[in-house]
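<instruction>
Derive structure tokens from the sequence
<data>
Labelled lines for chain and fold:
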Amino acid sequence: MSANQAMFPIATMARVLGVSEAGYYAWRHRPPSAHAQADAALLKRVRTIHTGSHETYGSPRVHAELQAAGEQHGRKRVARLMRAAGLVGASRRRAGVTTTRRDKEARPAPDLVDRDFTATAPNQLWVADITFVPTATGFLYLAVVLDAWSRKVVGWSMANHLRAELVLDAMEMAIGQRRPKDVIHHSDQGSQGGFNWSLQHGDGGWCDGGSATFGSGLAG
């Protein structure tokens, strides 16, 4: 009734809804209940925590912050207040974040390991991938090269873009640290724009006379 009183008289709405006009005015002037006041106070704390997280915290993180401060509130209550106030956190699965771009017109590279990611010695097989890390100021992208034998990261690179140099920097770190004589570098099908240039760059003497053979797995 309050929301529509500019369009319809209170008396008319009361009659249509079957409520007392006097009861409506009594409700309007009634002070908030203790529960409503407690919700308002809690929502103020929730807003402070949510704003302090640069609006990245959802209800589980906000609830954890409240608990850490010694405040005991139900998770469902925190979620209800945030939902009613339109407060949402940043999702790790935001739409539109793609770390692999497959060229449908290009011939896929062969799967040189036939999905067998075991190795009997260091620097026989490297596997590579890209992931993204959500931060308060946007996404950072992480390219990693892993030695399949030791399961250790041998090269990595982080940037705020997905250009070819992201994976090149990770590869160059791996080559610089390990200097392999003969290694298979395995990644999924598809690559960052311009990554063919990295193959040419690899032929230019990365491995001190050795060789790096590039293959890919199935797109996933």
Observations:
- The chain has two domains: 10-85, 125-216.
- Confidence is low (pLDDT under 50) at residues 193-211, 216-220.
- The first strand starts at residue 125 and ends at 135.
- The chain has seven helices and five strands.
